[in-house]
Amino acid sequence: MARNNERAPADPADGPVAEFGYELRQLRQKSGYSYAELARRTYYSRAALHAADHGYQLPTVEVVKAYVGACDSEADVKAFVEHRDRIAARLKAAATPPEAVQPATPWWHGQPLPDPATCSTKQLYVEGLKMLRELSGLSYSRIYKITVERGYHPTLPQSSWHRATNGGDPNKLPPKPNVASFLKAIDLPDEQQKAWLDQWLALYRGYAQLPTPRWVALSTAGHTIAGRTTPPPMETIRDWQLTDHGEWVEIRQEEAPGLSLLRPPRPVMTTVTWLLIFLILLGLVLAAA
Length: 289
Fold this sequence. Notes:
The protein is mainly α. It has helices at residues 16-31, 35-42, 46-53, 61-70, 77-93, 122-136, 140-149, 158-165, 176-185, 190-205, 271-288; strands at residues 217-219, 225-227, 239-242, 248-251.
């Protein structure tokens, strides 16, 4: 019986795709495995296995091999694959292919995705990557297999990518090549991939901007002030913070409480400097006398 939020299986009499799904479903039921147990054995998500045997779309060869092989039955995996290929050939030759074999809707279609522009800290960026994986429905093991099968470099072993996006150093970004492999593995649109990589670079260099920034002014060696709003009088500047890219940021403490702030070194006329100036002037006076 289908759950309230799941589509009921197609009637086997509806066509070859529905009949093939019915055969897969019977195989799973005989094995006694639930979808969750089968997902652990195949590295495919529960949703992918559910779609494979409900008869609304023809599963891929890879899914058929994994599904049949994981059921621990005497069924011939090769026979199932050949049956699937015959159905695919008949549907392709048909004048009007049935809706069941239309390209599957991408997982990201029609649902809001995390916006990399709002990931103003390294910790928020990592949380965004974690959310993308959860929305894609792919397990860490499946992502690793995809990076291997498609020849991405580097590949993303399950343990290392899980550690990078769960409980790691909140002030550390995963390596950029690893992020690029992950975004390609989950089939994120090209423009979204570029946005996430651009934000990675901004965070790495320390240029990421807050969506609703407080007043911040960057001070160069020449004390040139640049800010998103009119800077306050210099006497209201109480503290400084060093950014990742080596520039000092002047911040009004009352607008940014809780930051770990430092004071930059400022030129100071030390006692030794004054003493040297005094001796030079004394020498000049004595020489003139």
